[in-house]
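A student in our group prepared the protein record below, which I am reviewing. Thanks in advance; the entry in question is below.
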Amino acid sequence: MDNVYEPMMQFFEYSHLPIDLQTVSYQFYSVANWIVNSLPRNPERTVALRKLLEAKDCAVRAKIYKDNN
């Protein structure tokens, strides 16, 4: 596959995050990068990236979650 520009990859950037969140976010960046470079561009690839992005956001929030108990 050609390494073509994928606009959704901007949402998987992680270098701006604190180091403890970078380690979480990087895992999702790696999978997103694999998806972009391994699968053909089509609506299903976009959905895969969108759902991965949703999962990444949840994982980052899980990392910073503070239990009030």
Notes: The two ends are 49 Å apart (CA to CA). Residues 13 and 29 are 7 Å apart (CA to CA).
